[in-house]
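During the second half of the funding period, the structural biology subgroup turned its attention to how the target accommodates small molecules. The most pressing case was S-adenosylmethionine, which had performed well in the primary screen but for which no bound structure existed. We therefore specified the complex as follows and requested a full 3D prediction, including the ligand pose.
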Amino acid sequence: MKAPFDPSQAYLKLLKAALSNALYQPATEAPFSGDELKRAHQVLKRVRSRFAREIREIKSGARPVTPALVALLTEFAGQDVARFLRINAPGAHTLLTPDALDNIQACARQVIFFDIPGDFMECGVWRGGACILMRGLQLALGAGHRQVWVADSFQGLPAPDPQKHLLDAVIHEYLKDTGNFCVNLDQVRDNFRRYDLLDEGVRFLSGWFHDTLPRFDGQLALLRLDGDWYESTLTALECLYDKVSLGGYIIIDDYHPVVGAYAAVNEFRARRQITDPLTQVNHQLHFWRKLD
Ligand SMILES: C[S@@+](CC[C@H](N)C(=O)[O-])C[C@H]1O[C@@H](n2cnc3c(N)ncnc32)[C@H](O)[C@@H]1O
């Protein structure tokens, strides 16, 4: 028998579909056009010339490497780059896949249901879609008194230092022409307005994480990190982990060896002796519940 119609579930389902543009775009991805592949080859050439010395060192065995670095610098082909360049999908207000949006909903439901105190925050918001969903969830689930903190430079990803974080610097170079996720604060506010979700419960932390996050003195029940790089992720964990309530969630969007966030999370968890199990949602997204 069909479940009875639940207006708040129906609203949230529609909200997620609208945020990811799933309502309007075809479910299967179109093949790459000739122009896209041509552009991808130009980018590949640029990246290989910028990191020519590092590639020589990798090939001669003079540099310690990870499989991700070898793949990005020596094995990537036009199709891989074309996939990268499609990242700023026009129309969608979030890069998150349906399982990632469902994961925010599941964590939000748990903390609201079990009364875990604190606000919700995302560090690294792009067009704001995940935060818009967070506010929609708070209101739909009767927790509108909580706040959503929206933390971003609103100038895109910072340029990593290749001497310290070569992996992140290489990805940054690949993404250069896409604007490196640059979306300004007015555009993000406007996106909230389109869903009628810009209210006093939405707070913006505008600037680089190392400037804004140390000043945050609230409490969090849900912390979502989507700043990609090693430095961005480590800064967020160092500034905010102790603000997460027991029973709250830490969601890491980029827990995959191909980006620096992976090493930052592993290092932080080891240093702080965090043994709360990491749960995998998809090939990159992981989260843990703070129990210790
Ligand atoms: C992959 S996008 C986030 C995607 C977004 N969560 C969504 O729902 O589509 C990464 C974002 O992190 C931000 N970012 C990364 N490092 C940062 C830093 N150190 N300070 C401020 N913003 C940063 C970038 O500006 C960018 O908007």
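Two results from this model are relevant to the next phase. The first strand starts at residue 119 and ends at 123. The mean pLDDT is 94.
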